Amino acid sequence: MISRPAILLLMAVLLAAMPARADNPAIPQFWDVKERLIKPDISSFARVRFLTTTDFPPFNFIDANGLLSGLHVDLARAICRKLEILDRCQIQALPWDELEPALERNQGDALIAGLAITPDKREKYAFTRSYLRFPARFVAGRASVLEEPIDAAVAGKRVGVLARSEHEAMLRDYFPDARPVTYSRAEWLFEDLRAGKLDAAFGDGMRLAFWLAGQESGDCCRFAGGPYLAPEYFGSGLAIAVRGGDAALADAFDYALREINMDGTFAELYLRYFPVSFF
């Protein structure tokens, strides 16, 4: 796993290089363009208080100026702007283990911090629809001819994957003809991929995107094939959680999230923090 300081450093390099980007990165879209949502009335909320953390870059972190930053912070502001409640919006950072107690004590109105969407959590909270999911991806050397259909292309190929991970389980289930090579540490996997000892690697698309863009990859490799979204392995992605009795607030966030996706705001935010798209 890439460390927090390494991610922050890599983000700074990538953001500085964004104007020179000449490719056409894929933007994730989870909304039906034909769907229309009614803008809910949330005038009963005197203010809307988002709760997040400071240690989940690039989603939320303290930047070089000591300010709370990240995709979640900018997304919360965009939601409030779309709902025309920016003057009533607040964003507060707390340690992870204090987020849910704070929401339950009415010290905040919404969690935007990557809370897992589980059956138990759904009994306590109302969630928005997912605004971002994390696909599995294959990475191969730049000279590789590995492309879709990947299930046939990886037959008999040595594919590196982290041992005992959900990605290993998916690789074995979805691509039974591949030859998994398991690793206990990501850096060892990457070393072997860069050295040509593997035909491909399989793992979390976001982490792989950071590695591909970083100096450690030596520009050796590229994504091969498309993204694989598999909720049965990786969950439902990221969503905003509110108290169960505040479902109308979740509906309002859904309205704003759809509008943000349709007008290009989400694409701009996504590329701001993920200039190398993992989709």
Defining key terms:
single chain, 279 residues, alpha/beta, D-Maltodextrin-Binding Protein, domain 2, 2 domains, five-stranded mixed sheet, three-stranded parallel sheet, 11 helices, 36% helix, elongated, disordered N terminus
What does this structure look like?
Helix content is 36%, strand content 19%. The chain contains eleven helices and 13 strands. The chain has two domains: 4-132 and 237-273, 3-Layer(aba) Sandwich (D-Maltodextrin-Binding Protein, domain 2); 136-233, D-Maltodextrin-Binding Protein, domain 2, CATH 3.40.190. The strands form four sheets. Strands 10-9-11-8-12 form a five-stranded mixed sheet, with helices on both faces. A three-stranded parallel sheet has the order 5-1-6, with helices on both faces. Strands 2-3-4 form a three-stranded antiparallel sheet, with helices on one face. The longest helix has 16 residues, at 247-262. By secondary structure, it is an alpha/beta fold. Helix 2 packs across helix 10 (247-262) and helix 2 runs antiparallel to helix 11.
